[in-house]
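re: ur question from yesterday

yeah so i grabbed the chain u mentioned. its 272 aa long if i counted rite. heres the sequnce exactly as i have it in my notes:
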Amino acid sequence: MLVGVLGPEGTYSEMAALALGFPQDALCYFTTIEDVARDLIERRLDCGVIPLENSIEGSVGTALDVLLTLPLQIAREITLPVRHFLAALEGADIQVVYSHWQAIAQCNAFLHAFGREVVAVSSTSQAAHMASEDRRAAAIASSRAVERYHLQIVEADIQDVKENFTRFVVVKRRGGQPQAREDLKTSIVLELKQNRPGALYEVLHVFAERQLNLMKIESRPAKRSLGEYLFYIDLEGSASDSSVLGAFDALQKHVSRLKVLGSYTSETHFAP
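ran it thru and got these structure tokens back, copy pasting raw so excuse formatting
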């Protein structure tokens, strides 16, 4: 079993993979979500663990894009609390702070008050690695990265919103049918046939009349022309449930495109 995660060691993606029960020696580290997806398609990985959504910054566009465009599906989901730490070498004279752009955005108020130069890098773990080699630098990173790169915590829990969570999903190559289980969650993406008044209402009514609970709906540009959108929807139930299948059939007259991104279990891991 080989599992792709965003690296280097110490990232939140690695923490999610370990919380899901994957062994450390099964993890393979990648720079981008696209790299994980490519090796999945080329069968060099069995699955990947990637971030999908943060409670502060919203959806991870790259993750939604690969699920839309490639023959991949969501197999599991885990939500982790995200705690950001400012860390540096002991005795460092901090002049610059490195981190991933999302972590920077999530710690905006702290960084404004801290008043140092801020530089975005590929991951929070990469930031920790850079800080471990430069006494002028600090990193915003996870507790695991702080420990991995032998840094000292300067300030803990520096995220602007303390209730900060990220959804991670296990993605794999498409194949097989989901179980008809009540505890599953299904994600889909659809495109309306016509952009006209009431078109989205008609789609939502299909779910409402079958008493299917929508947990999330988000629009994203279709990347063709301004004003054309795709709708990403999470709903309770399995894509094998008769009521969900009935909804998909009824949607065909309203949408030009519908893709099931997966039916999967969802869990929350509260350990720090």
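noticed a couple things. The CA atoms of residues 1 and 248 lie 34 Å apart. also The two ends are 26 Å apart (CA to CA).
anyway ttyl
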